[in-house]
Amino acid sequence: MTEIAIRAARPGDLQALTGIYNHYVRETSITFDIEPRTLDQRRQWLEGFAATGRYRCFVAVKDGSAIGWASSHRYNERAAYDTTVACGIYLAPEATGQGLGRRLYTVLFDALAREDIHRLFAGITLPNEASVRLHRAMGFEPVGVYREVGRKFGRYWDVATWLRPQGIRP
Ligand SMILES: CC(C)(COP(=O)(O)OP(=O)(O)OC[C@H]1O[C@@H](n2cnc3c(N)ncnc32)[C@H](O)[C@@H]1OP(=O)(O)O)[C@@H](O)C(=O)NCCC(=O)NCCS
Fold first, then answer.
1. Domain assignment present for 16
2. What CATH number is attached to the domain comprising 14?
3. Which of 17, 20, 58, 127 is 20 to 30 A from 46 via CA?
4. Would residue 169 count as lying in a domain?
5. For residue range 83-140, what is the model confidence (pLDDT) as tens digits?
6. Domains contained in the chain, number
7. Which atom of ligand 1 is nearest to the CA of 129?
8. pTM > 0.85: yes or no
9. Buried b (16+ CB within 10 A) or exposed e, 134-159
10. Which residues, judged by CB distance below 6 Å to any ligand atom, belong to the binding site of ligand 1?
């Protein structure tokens, strides 16, 4: 079986990560983007991460190609929200259900361990049992559900909000 390595994202991962993201844009309600993102749009997204600080991106790599990522990004532009960080995690469909989500989040959270982060946030369009279970397993707790806040594929979708009360501490 080919090893799956985890490392910080690089500019060369752009195409693979955009392909994964656009699969979920086109086929699912997991993201509320409706139109596929261009490489330029996703380049800006990828350039928003750094090797230090609160906002990072780690990729899982198999046979030289990125097959998923976990990232941390701004929760809200207003300054008092700085210590709350939102998480994102997407795996290629064939890479799901093998414990990789947990591995990626563990590496991300370890990397963030010294940062000044008080809360981690995740928003999950329902239903998404794998994501709900992953976030629960990683110490997030359910806060509530925003009913029918997104419309995609001609229907409205609920979004569950989850917070990790210990922030970045194990
Ligand atoms: C959500 C996601 C990141 C989870 O990562 P994963 O590697 O597939 O999940 P893991 O194998 O680490 O398993 C985590 C938990 O989810 C469960 N799970 C995994 N796939 C599942 C599925 N298809 N249905 C139900 N539960 C599932 C596992 O049993 C495990 O539960 P447990 O902790 O109670 O044992 C991954 O499935 C994915 O990328 N999905 C598509 C994109 C997405 O939904 N991103 C999250 C947006 S909020």
1. yes
2. 3.40.630.30
3. 127
4. no
5. 999 999 999 999 999 999 999 999 999 999 999 999 999 999 999 999 999 999 999 9
6. 1
7. 25
8. yes
9. bbeebbbeeeeeeeeeeebeeeebeb
10. 24, 30, 89-91, 96-102, 124, 128-131, 133-134, 137
